[in-house]
Here is the input.
Amino acid sequence: MAASDRLNQTSNILDKSIQKSNSQLSLLQVDTPFKVCVVGSGNWGTTIAKVVSENTAQHPHLFEPKVNMWVFDEKIEGTSLVSIINNKHENVKYLPNIPLPENLVANPDLLNTVGDADIIIFNIPHQFLPKIVQQMKGNIKPTARAISCLKGFEVGKKGVQLLSAYVEDELDIPCGALSGANLAPEVAKENWSETTVAYQLPKDYRGDGKDVDHRVLKALFHRPYFHVSVIEDIAGISIAGALKNVVALGCGFVEGLGWGNNASAAIQRVGLGEIIKFGQMFFPESRVETYYQESAGVADLITTCSGGRNVRVAKHMAKSGKSALDAEKELLNGQSAQGIITCKEVHEWLETCELLHEFPLFEAVYQIVYNNVAMDKIPDLIDELDEFRVE
Ligand SMILES: NC(=O)c1ccc[n+]([C@@H]2O[C@H](COP(=O)([O-])OP(=O)(O)OC[C@H]3O[C@@H](n4cnc5c(N)ncnc54)[C@H](O)[C@@H]3O)[C@@H](O)[C@H]2O)c1
Ligand SMILES: O=P(O)(O)OC[C@H](O)CO
Here is the structure.
């Protein structure tokens, strides 16, 4: 077959698959279209807001087209970021050079953004979550449903908590999660990638067509360039998403030291073992299969360790001798590398449980970031306690 025929055949297959998925969506009906909002407008917040706004515009029988995005407003050369986004349809600070849909509306008023929403998508660096959730208490629809796109944990009086569980407890609404191998700039440019959404129907599920279910979530997040698998394992995808950021810091250290790909692969091997162990130990409801079957597992570990912000910040620390916070500030223009906070949260939790020795890589990353332990000690720190090695 000639190359042009093969190309035509591929394009026909793609067209048919898009037609099939559109016709499945037109069969999906809801009583009243859901109103969607996004809390957060950083690099990933704005990207996900773009994704869902494209879908709400395309499926008005399922969703109200307008999507409100809460913006923690700031001045950019004297002009408010909110007004720049709404006039220029671009988030010039956190997602420059990406045109945003006109039905995506930036809103600086948190309560006005979330007050009438049926689906609330959380997408902010997780250190800001408690303050935001406190403000939202009593100011949302009791029937609202939430999805957390955050990667991290909440460590407090209740021990180590998934962020989705924290939202559920604080706001008394069901909350699922979205996590995957998703570097925001690539998704924003509409380069193909996959993601995983996890959601469990709540006890007070109001019925098909009346409430959010897996099909509604697929319709909300799936795009031709962003393929969504919807599962129930909220814990599995959230643990993998949070902890791969700590592993990525470890990869950045060895890469910054100039040790190359083998060293980075070794860190990822040990890291994956510790991620799975952490899940089994503290969240036994998480499924080991999720780590290798879903985008939110190994695939996210690989992409983050290849080109994410955490690995870049750690490399910069290794090369410049700067602290984690200084490196983050210098490289990321207001964005966050969540591994810096997550390794501290993990350390505090494991210390409370007297289990630091069970997670040598996580602990080594913490000691390097917070106690100036030399990066080139990583192999010894890991080797001492690496339970996967045969003596
Ligand atoms: N960027 C990515 O590639 C990516 C991909 C997948 C998941 N994630 C996860 O998504 C979550 C959000 O990340 P992001 O990339 O959108 O954020 P970001 O790192 O771009 O952070 C910047 C955002 O933080 C906001 N902010 C700053 N100070 C604040 C304050 N005091 N209160 C509230 N907000 C404040 C800024 O306004 C801006 O919206 C994180 O948990 C991250 O790990 C990120
Ligand atoms: O850029 P990072 O390191 O925050 O990683 C981004 C995403 O979590 C990758 O899926």
User: Anything to note?
Assistant: The chain has two domains: 31-232, 236-390. Residues 31-232 form a domain with the Rossmann fold fold (CATH 3.40.50.720). The first strand starts at residue 36 and ends at 39.
